[in-house]
Amino acid sequence: MNDKEDEKYKKTNNQISRRDFLKLTGTIVIWMGVGSCSYVIPVSGGYILVDPKKCQGCISCMLACSLVHEGVENPSLSRIQVLQNSFNKWPEDQKIEQCRQCVDPACVKACPAGALKANAEYDNVRMVDKNKCIGCGTCIRVCPYIPTRSVWNFEEAHAQICDLCANTPYHWDAAGGGPDGKQACVEVCPVGALQFTKEVPEQEGDSGYKVNLRGESWAALGYPID
Amino acid sequence: MNGYAGKILRVHLTDRKISSIPTSDYEQWVGGHGIGSALFFDLVKDKTIDGFDPANVMTLMTSPLSGTLVPGASGRTEVQAIGVQSYPIGWYTRSNFGGRFSAMLKYAGWDGIVIEGKADTPVWIDLRDDKVEIRECSLLSLWGKDTWDCQRAIWDYVVGNGSYDDWWELNGTNGGRTTQRPAVVAIGPAGEHLSRLACLIHDASNASGQGGFGAVWGSKNLKAISVIGTGSIHIHDPKALLQARLSQKEQYAFDLDNLGQIAFSTEFRCPPLPGVFWEREKQHGPQACVGCHSGCRARYESGRGNEASCMTTLFYFGFAHTNEIQYQAADLLNKYGLNAFEVTIGFQYIFMLNWLGALGPGKEIDCPLDFDDLGSLEFVEQFVKMIAYRNDGLGNECEFGDTIAEGFCRAAQKWGRLEGDEGDLKTGLLTFPHWGLPVHRNPRGQLEWGYGSILGDRDINEHCFDHLYQDPMRASNKGIPVRATAEEAVTIYTDKMVPYEGDRLMLDYSTDNMYSEHIAKFVAWHRHYTRFWKQSLLFCDWRWPDFLNVSAPQRIGSTGEAEPQFLNAVTGKNFTFLDGMELGRKIWNLDHAIWTLQGRHRDIVHFADYIYSTPLEEQYLVPGRKNGAWDYIDVTGRCIDKEKFEEFKTRFYELEGWDPATGYPTRDTLESLGLGFVADELEQNGKLGGE
């Protein structure tokens, strides 16, 4: 796929609003470029929302992610990234950047190997089948967000994205993860700065994904809740 | 090696030689302090050298838990070397700091760093995964920069792309990549000018505070160490680790929706509140070290006072005209790289001397500070810079600045105020009770703190038993009930203090009991627990141990079970709590052998005179027996009796298996701990105890 088409898909994704989407039956049909193939990308059964103002920067979410997926502790393999600068003014001192399970996923559409798909077995969570991934890096390039949400696993040479803990060989819960299970990052976050939802968030801008999770109990600790 | 990176970096600054030591060579010591002391013993032949000697070896060590999800045990780095702050002998000592350095070092593939020698020009060390370079400070004009500017300059250089928003690759190939900034630990101008109060600073306010390690780095021409890593720490049982983490959180940690009784700042169940003495800015958010289940710092909308906690937030308290000035005073300590503890208590001393008319411009102690301006930002900035630059704080030569940069005990000595009947350590004007270091908890009240400090190398700064006195004090001040009666608390605590469990008198702080063999066991237990579980495995002092936990069933906290459970989940070892206590005893014996080689003899193990002669003035409620019944008793008005303290030392030495005549370790004890080689060295130096 060339850069012009990358741009087009980035723009399309940002412009589709939740309302437009809900007008349809819940699916979007898109014709892929020149190749005359088309396929249906159903919406994901789940999403992670974050509150960067609540975040304590402990990166427990990142450590939990690589632990349940790869069985190791390695922030570089985490599909959720917390970036921070100790010297900055709050709240510009840190960011939580999670995969959005986009309604119109550029990464899924771009994958030439059919490795990155909406997996029907897990309620259409966008996820990478690492056995099919050819390591071309296209999904990484086309993700419209910074840092790119598709993570390059340089130890195993394949891409990986947040799968809402669907494929987690080290999940602590017998019921496992996925949209119907528990997400390691959400469960481990000491302050509740991450929340799982089945509701499709507003796709345009950040307001759908960066939310206020601070309530009266947070205020009781003396922190602002606005 | 699950939990470990597998190798320790060795940097010889004189030769600019970089090599590595297999961690497996030291695995019996498990991590942190244990490995550090063992390395020091092997690498430093002459233990009597001064801390400024290039042959002084410094270790920065992680533990197998660093960089993992073990709660309150993932973020700290243990630093050890011959220090330059204690008086009259610079003991081989320790300090540690939080944040993200230890985690990043592990991801880079290193369990620790050993630094030897002295570089011939100022340098910094650049670690990027396996790649290690010693670089000239001149490359980035680092020498002379404050710690914050230094760290940011290194970030810009290492990351190199001007923005920190996206993934970047460490070495340009299709190898490791990260979104994170390098973790940097640095000295400021104070270390560069060899101030004995200089510390190491990481990020905004993580400080390896005690020991004068900033000056040790300065003497080696070492400005900073930067590390960025992209590797994996292998975990023996990932599911077990996650399960343990989540259940520990559920059972023993705070519940935001049900906070319950107000927690002390140094307990496992404390919610994520910044442990600060100042009034918090309204707009701020919590901040934690890597992996911690409940952070103890914050970052602020003003950007001032970021990550500061505890003593750093007490500096200039009560003097500063505004909160804003107090926040900036904390930032000054961090940027110039100074130990908050001694600077804060020392400042109070200087204030008193001025108030007494002995110190000021043109006074007997000629000090260029304008005390009419006390409370302003300019005043405190001048004071901080005086110590950092050894001058008048305004860029001019000045004996006063040079003198206090040597620490306040040495300053008092220089001013002729230290010794004698009217000496400041006799009257208590200089509240530095142990080894020329400032008071933290009062030795006359909080026995394990004072005894542990004087029998060791420094203000121990281990809050393990604080709640035994904080609980009744708070209850008394606020008119609320205690968390537990004295007897209940003592029972819960002593049940966990293996192998001495069951001896309730270990926690009887009463005057009748304060020199007993029970208190000796208390102190020994504390030394052993902290040397292993807190300073080798690096369970954080503000969250561990978890003795009494009002959120837990029967108020019984998780210490004794949680620590080994986490260790074993990460490493696959089969350590028991008792195993760790025994290893802690071994490490403590090794340290004591080092101090003995440095010149420790029981005759010099004494508090400052005022501890023996000046009664404890403040109310001090502690558990104890009165007429056979347990209660919280007030031990105000007591001193430590010098002769009885001598008897206590004898009991302590006998308990530890050391020669009571000298305090020296004995061959029997050392060999029983597998330290026969240590006995050999002591013997060669005429320092082995008689049996």
Explain what this protein looks like in three dimensions.
The complex is a heterodimer of chains A (226) and B (691). In chain A, 22% of the residues lie in helices and 19% in strands. In chain A, strand 7 and strand 8 (125-128) form a beta hairpin. The model of chain A is unreliable at 8-37 (pLDDT under 50). By secondary structure, chain A is of the alpha+beta class. In chain A, strands 1-2 form a two-stranded antiparallel sheet. A two-stranded antiparallel sheet of chain A has the order 3-11. Chain A has helices at residues 3-15, 18-23, 60-70, 106-110, 138-142, 184-188, 216-220, and strands at 27-31, 38-42, 47-50, 72-73, 81-84, 94-97, 116-119, 125-128, 151-153, 158-160, 194-197. With 691 residues, chain B is α+β, with helices and mostly antiparallel strands. Chain B has three domains: 7-228, Aldehyde Ferredoxin Oxidoreductase,  A, domain 1 (4-Layer Sandwich); 267-416, Orthogonal Bundle (Aldehyde Ferredoxin Oxidoreductase Protein, subunit A, domain 2), CATH 1.10.569.10; 447-592 and 607-658, Aldehyde Ferredoxin Oxidoreductase Protein, subunit A, domain 3 (Orthogonal Bundle). Helices cover 34% and strands 13% of the residues of chain B. In chain B, the strands form six sheets. In chain B, strands 2-1-6-3-4-5 form a six-stranded mixed β-sheet. In chain B, strands 8-7-14-11-12-13 form a six-stranded mixed β-sheet. In chain B, helix 1 (32-43) packs parallel to helix 18 (577-598). Chain B starts with 6 loop residues before the first strand and ends in a 7-residue tail after the last helix. The chains are: A alpha+beta (226), B alpha+beta (691). Chains A and B meet through helix 3, strand 4, strand 5, helix 6 and helix 7 of A and helix 3, strand 10, strand 15, helix 6 and strand 16 of B.
- Order of strands across the main sheet of chain B: 2-1-6-3-4-5
Q: Specify the number of helices of chain A.
A: 7
Give the uncertain stretches of chain A in residue-range form: 8-37
Looking at the structure, the CATH topology of chain A is Alpha-Beta Plaits
Number of helices of chain B: 22
